[in-house]
Write a structure and sequence with these properties.
The protein is mainly beta. The protein has one helix spanning 150-154; strands at residues 5-8, 11-14, 38-42, 46-53, 64-72, 78-86, 113-114, 120-121, 135-136, 148-149. The strands form 4 sheets. It has a 4-stranded antiparallel β-sheet with strand order 3-4-5-6, with no helix packed on it. Strands 1-2 form a two-stranded antiparallel ribbon. The radius of gyration is 19 Å and the shape is globular.
């Protein structure tokens, strides 16, 4: 959140800055990524986690309960579903930045080969917020149209 604040129903809501040039990133310095989520249920095909946040937590209004459901589908995809309920108006935007080691053994992820077909990216400005103009990735370090080893890319 730019400048660690937002407007809600005509009033300004001040948030706890994340030490990102005065902005709040990832829900604050004690955001959900830094907390222990509770296991609600789990088996070999799914895991359901929950987390509660009290009114005023990191500056956000309202009590919030969130769940994250990770499932292995019948066609071997990982499906992730987030849900959140709040008891008063409050912006909520949950996402995932997890890294998986796909080798099946403990090893260095930088040896993995990656292929992805993105055509454009929206770079971050120096203030950590996205630029309005997205750019073509062809012939940049973000061009993964052909399989490349992560170690090669990260060494640039």
């Amino acid at each position: 959140m730019a400048n660690s604040r937002f407007s809600l129903d005509g009033r300004s809501v001040n948030l706890t800055p994340s030490n990102e040039a005065g902005h709040q990133l990832h829900g604050g310095p004690e955001g959900f990524d830094k907390r222990r989520w509770q296991i609600v249920s789990a088996d070999d095909r799914h895991a359901l986690f929950s987390l509660s946040s009290h009114d005023g937590d990191q500056g956000f209004p309202g009590n919030l309960t969130a769940t994250a459901h990770y499932r292995l589908t019948d066609d071997n995809r990982i499906a992730i579903e987030y849900r959140a309920t709040v008891d008063q108006p409050c912006p909520v935007n949950l996402t995932n930045h997890v890294y998986f080691n796909l080798d099946g053994v403990q090893s260095d992820v930088r040896s993995h080969k990656l292929q992805s077909l993105p055509m454009r990216i929206c770079p971050l400005r120096a203030t950590v917020f996205r630029e309005a103009i997205c750019k073509n990735v062809t012939l940049t370090s973000f061009d993964f149209a052909r399989r490349r080893c992560w170690r090669t890319i990260s060494a640039r």
